[in-house]
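We modelled each protein-ligand pair independently. The example shown here corresponds to the zinc ion entry; the chain sequence is given first, followed by the ligand as SMILES.
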Amino acid sequence: MATTDLKQIASGVFAWQPGHEATWGLANCGLVVSRGQTLVIDTPYTPALTDTFLNAARAAAGADTAFDRVAVTHANGDHTWGLQQLPGAEVFATHATLEHQCLEPRPDQLQDLTRNTDPGQPLGWYFREHFGRFDFAGIEVLPPTTTFTARHDLTVGQVPAILHEVGPAHTVGDLIVHLPESSVVFAGDIVFAGDHPSHWAGPLERVSAACTRILDLDPEWIVPGHGPLMTPDDLQGYVAYLDDLADQAYLMHGQGRPAVEAARILIKENRYPGLGLPERLAITLSTEYRHLEQDSAAPDLLQLMNHAARIAWELASSPPLAP
Ligand SMILES: [Zn+2]
């Protein structure tokens, strides 16, 4: 697995980017350091990966610096399951993230899906392909300790860090971290770079609105939840994608096409070239359809993953197009 060093974005502001490989679970993390204080933004998926991140973070911050505060952008495991490596830390999240945490798959469920499913079937193959690199054994899921709604202001040494609630969007409880003096926004999974996103809460209009809020903060750099750093121009491109996808969902829903069929059509016509993990369209379109149908029931995550796995399986086994 490509594990990179911490990249300095601005004075005292770092991003840890474990790599962009068109795969699940390799989330970016952040570190803010000022005058002996720190703020960590999200933790990696597993304790082992978290130790790699924290070793780099401690080297950047200095040996005597305390790591006692973490801002968690949302409840997905790939952003929170490393928290046990920072025992006693104050963990900030939105109140909706705390409430949402119990709906997330558990580490032992993921371990089971990755190890004990049939690799000859799409779901078992897909989980091994994308989650087989992670060891979820022994992870204790820790809840946030300090929750808020709307906005929470922190000071890290001399640096203001403002947590803005922007969910529901990617999940029900998303937040972004704005560092106004450094002109950096950590966007969590509101923003994916390089791959199709998988938005679980939606609707897409809310994700797009969250991106517009980020642009209104006038940042120089945006750190997405996954993938390389973005400029505001890059983020504009992502907003255009979200808005187009919402239009396509509306159109195909009106034509009576199921969400999974709509995903297959968009993939076949190569509407969004260059983005990895196109099978995730089945997830995000299913989310959008739930809103169009005013269906407020909790989504069946395993069924959504199964849809995505089947599409990926088909794409992997179909012969390449003739030049
Ligand atoms: Zn993520």
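The chain has one domain: 6-317.
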